[in-house]
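Hello forum,

I keep getting stuck at the same step: I have a sequence, I want structure tokens, and every attempt I make locally crashes halfway through. Rather than fight my setup again tonight, could one of you with a working pipeline run this one for me? It's a single chain of 218 residues.
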Amino acid sequence: MTNKLALFDCDGTMVDSQANICASMDQAFQKHGLVPPDHHLVRRIVGLSLMEAVAQLFPEGDKKIVAAVTQSYKDGFSELRRAGGLHEPLYDGLIQTLEELDASGWVLGVATGKSDRGLSHVLETHGLSNRFVTLQTADRHPSKPHPAMVELAMAEAGAAPETTAMIGDTSFDMAMAVNARVRAVGVDWGYHDENELIEAGAEIVAANMADLNGILNQ
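Reply #2:
Ran it on my machine without issues. Output:
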């Protein structure tokens, strides 16, 4: 029997983490005497693996400085976590949506540009650690939009492309879904706008969290 898999992005889809990401990126660039990138640009790279994100924000930098800024970001984010300063609130309605999908027979998973540690912190903070059967992060995969995260998630969940949906807020999520040949479902409360999601391959864009159950069960 093939399972139905609803695979969620994390940042910008399940939680709003932009304040932490922007603050940590500011600190990382400043540590190396660099001008921090505009926060609008920072929000646009959310979802990519960290090294790829820094490289896009600092295209003139060589590999050595990109790696150094990346490590400084990791260090700063870890310190923020240890100090209890992370603020990553759930988007309204997420818990109810997860419950509805579970009740209607969907297996749940996550595919995120976060690290294992970062995702674990989010799930533990919000009591979601037992909600998902497969967790895919940037620690073990190429950056989105490479399909590796989705492919391994399907294997772990016993799902197939025709029974899998990738739910996310960025064009990277939608392109990853297209590359993995699964349904691409966008959400408009995150970091890329509706037109970008559709251009990247979204078959539909949810305006509200409450719409997701109906969309996936169409």
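The chain has a mean pLDDT of 95. If your local run keeps crashing, start a new thread with the error log.
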